Amino acid sequence: MASNSQSTLPVAAPSSISEAALPSGASNTATPAISTAPTIEKQGEESDPEKGSEKGTSPSRSSLESLAEAPARSITGLRWLLICLSLYISAFLYGLDTTIAADVQGPVVEDFGHVEQLPWIGAGFPLGSVASILLVGNLFGHFNMKYVFIGGAVMFEIGSALCGAAPDMNALIVGRVLAGCGGAGIYLGGLNYFSYLTVPTERGLYITLIGFFWGVGAVVGPLVGGAFSESSATWRWAFYINLVIGAVVAPIYIFFLPSIHPLPGKTIRERIASFDFLGLFLAGAAWVLFTVAFSMGGAQWAWSDGRTIALIVIFAVVLIAVVLQQYFTVFTTVAHRAVPGHLLLSRTQVLLVIATACSITSLFVVVYYIPIYFQFVNSDRPVMAAVRLLPFVVVSVVTNVSAGHLLSRVKYYAPVFLASGILITIGGAVLMVYLDPATSTGTIYGLTIVVAFGTGLSLQIGYAVATLSVVPADIGNAINLQNVAQIGGSTVALVIAGQVFNSEVAKTLSVALAGHGFTAEQIASAAAGAQSEFFRSLDGELRGAAIAAIVHAMQRSFVLVISSGAIMVVAAACMKFEKLF
Questions:
Q1: 132: phi > 0 → left, psi -120 to 50 → alpha, else beta; which?
Q2: In this structure, what are the phi and psi dihedrals at residue 40, rounded to the nearest 5 degrees?
Q3: DSSP states of 391-437 as a string?
Q4: Angle subtended at Cα 17 by Cα 15 and Cα 22, rounded to the nearest 5 degrees
Q5: With the C-alpha atoms ordered 359, 364, 370, 373, is the resulting torsion angle positive or negative?
Q6: Which residue has the higher pLDDT, 80 or 507?
Q7: Do the Cβ atoms of 362 and 451 come closer than 8 Å?
Q8: Which residues, 6+ apart, have CB-to-CB distance to 115 below 8 Å?
Q9: Which residues, 6+ apart, have CB-to-CB distance to 10 below 8 Å?
Q10: Where is this region: Disordered (predicted)?
Q11: pLDDT tens-digit profile of 88-97?
Q12: Domains of the chain by residue range
């Protein structure tokens, strides 16, 4: 993406790091390549290009004088409180929908069937986000921020409504993807608003809180999903709840959010002309093709099926096309290409992308499969299964927030990533071995906490390190790479883990239940969740055999946690042993 149009996402970095990463008086996006400051139109006032934004100054990491001279924030009082409230609620909703599907999968499959499409319930949301995130970043960097934000909110609500009213699995999946696209808009919108509206001395705190509220949403997501699944409202209200919350904050979006024009000196034609439409399309298409190919292959279609082979081939061709189009700047320019390719030549940036993707992968595998484990092994209802996940999620979020402060003290980032990789690898390996019906609940808690410390250490610090490792003009580009690594990593994690689980469970259950006259469809339905009618009909030795078979298949998915940790260890070992500041 062009450096003059970046959206930003320095989530959960402490204020000391966030401020150091920014040019004095600049937002967490790359500085627009025009001399005119962003225009903020306030209700009842004339548009003034100087109000609401800090004047750009030369980059500095420790200029206390520049910070002291920065103008006061132009929006204060009740209006500022309402703006903050609405933006943090948006971040909360984005986090909520990131994990809410973890505990509604069983009831959904029980209603609709099609257990082979189970990975799509979780993967559809991050797929929508990662496929659209580059486009959303361009929109925020080129057009009225208020309109882009509200557009994202509307799409998020439409997707949520479709999920809640879905008549079948396909409609639910489409709704999840739409909600993911809109979710990227409201999440990036909040970060962009705080980047433009706050002054340097307070910016780190406000942006850090975006990450905090995302984390809170992610913590309660499985709980909310499980609670609705067990209630008379049913799982559908796990998605309808977004409409209720959205209706409450909509008036704030409409009447209190200011209109911010990032490029007031450009005409609409000039803004549109700078878009790398081909690059944006190819990048989004690559993510969609990957997800479809590796979700359908081996589940609905055999790997040898012509459709599976065709999709994989097309995915490879499109991926190559993305690389060539970006490298040779076909129908675009170096300044405006969708992917900041020059940063991919940086050893530090590439290793940070790998580390962030590995961290989010290990997080999502645990978040999605540990509740399923407890539902089968302990016969837990969805809410109780989600409660058992809390030690992992809470430790991960707390460690995540603390990691920024640790980094500001240690100043060397490679050892932090190395420690994270070691904890994830060891915790994941032991967890996979002990993921057995006979293992005590306390042991599972303890092992997931080890992984939680590992994921928490590295989940967000990549944003801070990435921004401190580039020139000010590339801050937005570096953050966008981290966005893609984090959201894309969660998509890959859910698709691959789901593929492994579905493939293995079909084999292990067929062996465990062989000779009892069950159809292939009945056997497949047992893996849909502990609440499935067929699984509940099993008793005695058959039930025990089915649980053992399902848990054995689940163990294979945790290979992804081990491999992610090991890759992070290698990446950390290859990082420069250097001080950040």
A1: alpha
A2: -115, 115
A3: HHHHHHHHHHHHHHHHHHHH-BSHHHHHHHHHHHHHHHHHHHHH-ST
A4: 95
A5: negative
A6: 80
A7: yes
A8: 109, 502, 524, 525, 527, 528
A9: 18, 21, 28, 191, 207, 463, 464, 467, 479
A10: 20-66
A11: 999 999 989 9
A12: 77-276+332-504+558-574, 277-331
Token pair listed for 50: 């100087």
* Residue of 371, 374, 381, 530 lying closest to 439 (CA atoms): 374
d(CA 129, CA 143): 19
What is the pLDDT at residue 433?
94
Contact 504, 556 (CB under 8 A): yes
Q: Check if the beta carbon of residue 561 is closer than 8 Å to that of residue 451.
A: yes
Q: How is residue 532 written in tokens?
A: 């499935």
pLDDT classification of 455: cutoffs 50, 70, 90: very high
Tell me the pLDDT tens digit for each residue of 175-205: 999 999 999 999 888 888 887 888 766 776 7
Residue 312 burial (CB count, 10 A): 17
The two tokens of residue 405 are 């402060």
Most confident of 3-12, 45-54, 250-259: 250-259
Strands 39-41 and 259-261: antiparallel
As given in the structure block, the two tokens for residue 271 are 């803004």
Name the one residue in this structure whose structure tokens are 């450096």.
Answer: 3
State how far Cα 11 lies from the chain centre: 11
**Residue 530 and residue 106 in contact, taking contact as beta carbons nearer than 8 Å:** yes
Q: Which two tokens stand for residue 392?
A: 């992992």
Q: Work out the mean pLDDT of the chain and round it to a whole number.
A: 82
In 3D space, the residue among 222, 264, 327, 318 whose CA is nearest the CA of residue 39 turns out to be 264
pTM for the whole structure = 0.80
Query: Which residue(s) pair with 39 in the sheet?
Result: 261
Alpha-carbon gap, residue 183 to 122, rounded angstroms: 14
Residue 25 in this model has a pLDDT that exceeds 60: no
Residues 6+ apart with CB under 8 A from 13: 21, 204, 207, 208, 211, 404, 460, 461, 463, 464
Per-residue pLDDT tens digits for 214-248? 877 877 788 888 888 888 888 899 999 999 999 99
Could you read off the pLDDT of 83-126 as tens digits, one per residue? Answer: 999 999 999 999 899 888 877 877 887 788 777 777 788 888 98
What is each CA distance from 464 to 48, 202, 376, 475, 520, in whole angstroms?
Answer: 32, 16, 40, 10, 50
Angle at 108 between CA 105 and CA 114, to 5 degrees: 95
d(CA 315, CA 25): 42
Class of domain 77-276+332-504+558-574 as given by CATH: mainly alpha
Which of 152-156, 367-371, 413-417, 463-467 has the least mean pLDDT?
463-467
Burial 132-158 (b: 16+ CB within 10 A, else e): bbbbbbbbbbbbbbbebbbbbbbbbbb
Q: Return the residue matching tokens 């991050």.
A: 126
